[in-house]
Amino acid sequence: MLRPMASTAEFPRAHTELSATEKTFLQAYRWMLLARVVEEKLASLYRGGKIFGGVFLSKGQEALSVSLGISLRKRDIFAPLIRDQAARLAFGEPLLDCTRTYMGSRLGPMRGRDGNVHRGRPAEGILPMISHLGAMIPTVAGALMARRFRGIQGTVGATCIGDGGTSTGAFHESLNLAAVERLPLVLVVANNQYAYSTPTTRQFACRDLVDKAVGYGVEGHSVDGTDLLASLQVVGHAVERARAGHGPQLVVASLLRLAGHGEHDDGHYVSPGLKEGALGRDCLKVAEERIIDQAWATREELALWHEDAQRQTEEAVAQTLREPLPDPSQEDWCSLASRHLSEG
Amino acid sequence: MITYLEAIREAQAKALRDDPRVYIYGQDVGQFGGAFKATKNLAQEYPGRVLDAPISEDAIVGSAIGAAMEGMRPIVEMQFADFSTVGFNQIVNHAATLHWRTAVPCPITIRLPSGGTAGGGPFHSQSMEAIYAHYPGLIVMAPATVEDAYSMLLEAVAIDDPVVFCEHKYLYYHLKAESLPTEAMPTGKARIARTGRDATIVTYSAMVHESLAAADELAAEGWEIEVIDLRTVKPLDTDTVLASVARTGLLLAVGEAFPWGGVTAEILARVASEGFDLLDAPPRRLNAKDTPVPYHPNLWGTHRPTARTISAEMRDLLRR
Ligand SMILES: Cc1ncc(C[n+]2csc(CCOP(=O)(O)OP(=O)(O)O)c2C)c(N)n1
Ligand SMILES: [Mg+2]
């Protein structure tokens, strides 16, 4: 699959002395940065009335998201959820898939038929989410069963869910199913403290979501989702455990949604205490500070990377704006693969 | 002026005020006032009776059924009609069958923010009235006016049966009235939204307004089109429909839902079997296309019927 890490500013020479972990960290940081920049652009296009429907930002969740995307391999299966722009980029989804789907380009993977985060490339292992929360977990499980039936080894399947999505029947049913089948499934829960306006106190009564792992008989991991280093380690470890045959892995990350539920929402209900507390840290800033503290890159290099992300974003948006919009007269209005069976 | 959405909010406020058995349950309906603000301030005004639910539609509906059996009158808000499929089992297998099986009524109201809006896409746009109307034991309402949104929701809460209340998101802000009604038509009775003698359009919900606009267009060409607003799709007021067709001789049924089966097919089936000789030409139906609801407005605008396509279809019928 395409890995669009196109960049004018590859790692500077000094970085050849960095360890593999440090290089991964920098790579992950740059995907996070690109996700942040492209989403800021989407938000401004939305405010300008250039995007129909909702715009959902992953601000504050990029570290967790990228950790999953970067830990997966090319032939793995990935069903990203609402706040997974960084993971999508790291897994290899072209940036244009994002802008084209949000802006309805006919050339995008969804051809204007579906929008915003409801996009993917099933043939390349990126499953396009439906809105119904929880619905992608059993789908990934089934894709893994197919790999097993077909005798394909070494695949990991991964998907994400929010704290709210853990309340669905689908979450429960499919984690249990995956455990029974001992599938190499990694389920990352982003506990960002809210499901739209609903705080976790109205969502679940367990002490910690990771305790659910015991109930399903799967391995559970907790991580501070504001910390890129920790997220890379914990999510990476969970992916390796799944790949090594230890069955489903439940990763529960604590963090805070640093935007509204969508751009239509100001998130006024988010508790100030949470915003000011440890969970309210901006993972991008935390990662940046670590880079500078550890001298893995200079501030000048960070600025260059930021410029590079902006350039990539502007190019993608400009190209998308030049592309044709969906045209009803060119649609076949046929939902079936068996075209001859379509009633039209 | 009061909007369709505010009317829904006011009806719930009145239901909470007048009847201690009423409570509201759904995602984000509490302090936040709901995704569309249909329960704005109700949690503050009626503490403990407007509760945020987990994202568990199956359990939300199931719990409402249990509460109803114990004498409550729950109002359940689905965040979008489309997510009611997750509670489908409880709605069609449990709520719908309870009274028939036990003679114990199941007075729950399930509010479904329904229908398409620009940019809504396949999972935030569906019209599900036909699916629910198919099941014995459910009443299905689809109000098209501010007044009906208010009075029918109050009726829904008062009725001893499970009511699926399909409120149209497109009408939420678009539709305004001077004031709330003090009296209402009986449940199950259709309304003649516009009288005419040349042809009959039977429709409901947002399509009433598209049909009225089409009738305006055709009036400029000298045609008088009668528009019937069904109000409830189950029970379906066949008498009013037949009486209109008896006057006009021509029938076009219009709906926003998918074309296979559904409310428009039911209307045609009833008129064909009970009033075949009233018809001067084969009756017609106009629905959305047989694909999921597309996201981009360019496609969505073609997917569903509009005043333009309704008037075109009607012209064709008139020139038969
Ligand atoms: C089954 C279902 N019910 C309701 C919704 C409407 N909905 C969309 S996002 C959302 C909140 C999700 O919260 P959470 O799972 O915590 O994810 P977050 O938005 O915080 O990332 C809700 C209720 C839905 N998409 N699916
Ligand atoms: Mg959440």
User: What are the segments of chain B in which pLDDT stays under 50 over at least 5 consecutive residues?
Assistant: none
What's the CATH topology name of chain A? Rossmann fold
Average pLDDT metric of chain B: 98
Q: What is the alpha-carbon Rg of chain B in Å?
A: 19 Å
Poorly predicted sequence stretches spanning 5 or more consecutive residues of chain A:
1-8
Explain what this protein looks like in three dimensions.
The complex is a heterodimer of chains A (344) and B (320). By secondary structure, chain A is an alpha/beta fold. Chain A has a single domain, classed as Rossmann fold, CATH 3.40.50. Helix content of chain A is 41%, strand content 9%. Chain A has 11 helices and 7 strands. Chain A has a 5-stranded parallel beta sheet with strand order 1-2-3-7-6, with helices on both faces. A two-stranded antiparallel sheet of chain A has the order 4-5. In chain A, a hairpin with a 2-residue loop joins strand 4 (194-195) and strand 5. In chain A, helix 1 crosses helix 2 (62-71), helix 2 runs parallel beside helix 8 (228-243) and helix 4 crosses helix 11 (299-322). Chain A is globular, with a radius of gyration of 20 Å. The relative contact order of chain A is 0.16. Mean pLDDT of chain A is 95; it is low at 1-8. In chain B, the strands form 3 sheets. A 7-stranded mixed beta sheet of chain B has the order 3-2-4-5-7-6-12, with helices on both faces. Chain B has a 5-stranded mixed beta sheet with strand order 9-11-10-13-14, sandwiched between helices. Chain B has a two-stranded antiparallel ribbon with strand order 1-8. With 320 residues, chain B is of the alpha/beta class. Chain B has 2 domains: 2-177, Thiamin diphosphate (ThDP)-binding fold, Pyr/PP domains (Rossmann fold, 3-Layer(aba) Sandwich); 191-318, Rossmann fold, CATH 3.40.50. In chain B, helix 1 runs parallel beside helix 6 (146-158) and helix 8 packs across helix 12. Chain B is globular and about 60 Å long. The longest helix of chain B is centred in the N-terminal third of the chain and has 15 residues, at 4-18. Chain B contains 12 helices and 14 strands. Chain B has helices at residues 4-18, 42-45, 57-69, 88-102, 129-133, 146-158, 169-174, 206-219, 238-248, 262-275, 297-303, 307-318; strands at 2-3, 22-26, 50-52, 73-77, 109-114, 139-141, 163-168, 176-177, 191-194, 199-203, 225-229, 232-234, 251-254, 284-286. Chains A and B meet through loops of A and helix 11 of B. Bound molecules: thiamine diphosphate and magnesium ion (MG). Thiamine diphosphate (TPP) sits between chains A (82-83, 131-133, 162-165, 168, 190, 192, 194-196, 257, 261) and B (27, 55, 57, 79, 83, 86). Thiamine diphosphate sits between chains A (82-83, 131-133, 162-165, 168, 190, 192, 194-196, 257, 261) and B (27, 55, 57, 79, 83, 86).
